[in-house]
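From the shared-data thread, chain only:
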Amino acid sequence: MRRNAALLVCAVFLCAACSDGPPKKEKPLSVPGEKLYTVEGTILGRDADDNNLRVDHKEIPGFMEAMTMDYPVRGADVKTLPADKSRFSARLHVTDSGYWLTDVKQVP
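Structure, as tokens:
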């Protein structure tokens, strides 16, 4: 009887350790008070675990000079976006507490 109980406890811990945990809450694509910009550039790489793109973007008039940086992406899985070294355009959402990209599309 104790052996069965010990096996059951081990099985429960094993299942808990193998689970991905609770589902992640999706962040909104847009929030009140954000500023929106169009960003264009080249995709240099991606981090699928954090759903980020590393991009080399052109100047964003009225906001930022041209530079290379990582951006979180909302509303799409970075694995499904245009390939590395592709030219792209996207919407850049900016708030006092963060920034992210949406509508990432390949451009010719």
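Residues 2-18 form the longest helix (17 residues).
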